[in-house]
Write a structure and sequence with these properties.
The chain is α+β, with helices and mostly antiparallel strands and 118 residues long. It contains three helices and three strands; from the N terminus they run ααββαβ. The chain has a domain of 79 residues: 2-Layer Sandwich (Histidine-containing Protein, Chain: A).
C-alpha cells in the first residue's frame, strides 16, 4: 500500500506540471478576446465594403483577414492593375496600418463577372 502511495507522490508533481502547462497553453491570447475579434471582424467588413465598392476590380475572389490593424488579402485577381488597386483600397480604410498581399494574378479569371454564377 505504501508503494502505491510513494508512486502517487512521484507522479503527482508531473500531473500538476502537465496540467499547469495545458492550462497555460490553452489560455486565449490577447488577440483572441471577444472584443478584439469583434473589432477585427469590423475591420474585415470595412475592407470588404471598400473592395466591393470599387468598380474597377472584381472583388468577390479576394479574401480578407485581419490581425489587429494588419489586413491580409488573399485569393486572386485578373490583372496586376487589380492587385495594385485592391491593396490601395484596403490601405485607405481607416484603421488599417499594413496590408499583406497574398493574392495571385490569374488571367484566366478575366471576364468572370458577377453574373457567371461561380
Amino acid at each position: 500500500m505504501s508503494v502505491i502511495h510513494v508512486r502517487s507522490l512521484r507522479i503527482a508533481p508531473l500531473v500538476l506540471l502537465a496540467y499547469g502547462s495545458l492550462a497555460f497553453a490553452v489560455e486565449p491570447a490577447a488577440s483572441d478576446t471577444p472584443a478584439t475579434e469583434q473589432s477585427g471582424n469590423a475591420l474585415v467588413q470595412k475592407v470588404q465594403d471598400a473592395l466591393h465598392a470599387d468598380q474597377t476590380l472584381l472583388a468577390r475572389h479576394i479574401n480578407v483577414r485581419a490581425d489587429g490593424d494588419v489586413v491580409t488579402l488573399s485569393g486572386y485577381v485578373a490583372t496586376t492593375a487589380e492587385l495594385t488597386q485592391a491593396k490601395r483600397d484596403a490601405k485607405n480604410v481607416p484603421g488599417v496600418k499594413k496590408v499583406v498581399d497574398q493574392m495571385k494574378v490569374d488571367r484566366s479569371r478575366l471576364g468572370s463577372g458577377p453574373s457567371d454564377g461561380g
